[in-house]
Structures are given as C-alpha cells and as structure tokens.
Amino acid sequence: MPRPDPGLPEGAHYVARWLTLEQQRWIVGRFHEWTRGPVPIRAAKVRGTEMSVRTVCLGWHWRPYRYTREAVDVNGNRVLPFPDWMVRLGRSALVAATGDPRAGDGYTPDTALVNYYDDAARMGMHQDRDERSAAPVVSLSIGNTCRFRFGNTEHRNRPYRDLDLASGDLFVFGGASRFAYHGVPRVYPGTAPEGCGLQTGRINITMRETGLEG
C-alpha cells in the first residue's frame, strides 16, 4: 500500500491502515486483559490536574515525569512485563514506516503507554522526554479517528501539522523529530470501523525505549 505524504518533518513517518482488522481485534483483546491486570487503568495527574486520557502501562509504569517498575501512585503493584510480541511488532513498524529493512535492527522497546480516549478526551501538546533513550517512538491507533497535531522541537506553537489518525494507522517519530511537541486536540465519535474490536473510544499504544535498568 502506498504511504501518503502528509508533509511531515524529517524523522516522522505515517502509514495508513498498517494493522489489519484482525490484528486490531486481537490487540483490543489484550488491552482488556491489561486493564484487569495488577495495575488498573487510571488517569494520571499532571501538576495536580487529572488527565482526560486514561492509561495502563507495560514494562515500566509512567507517571509525570518518571518511570518506575511499581505503580507507586496507583496501588503499588508491579506493572505487567513488556510482551515479546510487541518488541517484534515495534521492529516491523520501523521497517514499514521508513522503508529501510534494517530500521528495526537493535530496536528493543521496553515500555508501552496504552492510552484510552473517550469522546471527550484530549491530549495537550507535549514532548516525550522522560526516557533516557532517543530511540524512535512507535504509535498505533485503534478505534475512533483522532485529530493528531505534530509540531516542532522548540515550542508548542506553529509550525505544526494536523492529520487524522484512523484505526490501524501507524505513526513513528525519531531522529530529528524524536522530541517534537505533539498532541490530540480532538476525537471523532462514531468513526471506529466495524470489526476493529472497539465499539466506542480510541486506544493509542506508544512503544518506547526507556534506557533504564532494573
């Protein structure tokens, strides 16, 4: 399938409908298992304000602005391990996004932030800077389409690029774009395709290398 060119900066890549409906349904099934795991899905608090997005973590638990193995701000339990199949998926995603058959070599994500957006959820412009590694971030979307805003590395304002991420879409940012500001200003209700596994809402999986040990 030809990749669309949304005019993204160097290091950012977009592949439409990369995941099949069958793959999406399977991942949604895993999502429901994760939310029933040792650490429940929760809305993190940023500077005392609860986010509208709810998150469950794999490998490492994220809370602003650090990672820990245990969810010390939820119930103290250790989060689920990062699955081997997701490592393989992340490597395949880099190959698909860049067109370089060696792009996934050595890429070993060890954490995933799995975010659930209801119809009213938003994500403000921010950088992913809590990792010690500058390896690419791999982002997968399932469910409702969202408006995704991808900006520059200096500040939250223009220039930025808006594009709609639909169910099954892949977005990767690394290299010169690894620390670009990005956010989700809008979710489009009722746009999830039949058969994706979600009736409402949107799941976004972002895989990262933390560069942490322990």
Shape: globular
Unreliable segments of 5+ consecutive residues: none
Spatial order of strands in the largest sheet: 1-12-9-14-7-4
Largest sheet: 6 strands, antiparallel
Q: Could you estimate the helical fraction of the residues in percent?
A: 10-25%
Known CATH architecture: Sandwich
CATH class: Mainly Beta
| Radius of gyration over C-alpha positions, nearest whole angstrom | 16 Å
What share of residues are in beta strands? Answer: 25-35%
Arithmetic mean pLDDT: 96
**E-strand count:** 14
How do the SSEs run, as a string of H and E?
EHEEEEEHEEEEEEEE
CATH superfamily: Alpha-ketoglutarate-dependent dioxygenase AlkB-like
Structural class: alpha+beta
CATH fold-level topology: Jelly Rolls
Number of domains: 1
Number of helices: 2
Gap between N and C termini: 41 Å
Describe the structure.
- This protein is of the alpha+beta class and 214 residues long.
- The chain has a single domain (14-208), classed as Jelly Rolls.
- 14% of the residues lie in helices and 30% in strands.
- It has helices spanning 21-35, 84-98; strands spanning 12-15, 45-46, 49-50, 54-58, 61-63, 66-68, 111-117, 123-126, 137-143, 146-150, 161-165, 170-173, 182-187, 202-208.
Key structural traits:
Jelly Rolls, 214 residues, alpha+beta, 14% helix, 6-stranded antiparallel β-sheet, 14 strands
What does this entry show, briefly?
The chain has 214 residues and is an alpha+beta fold. It has two helices and 14 strands, in the order βαβββββαββββββββ.
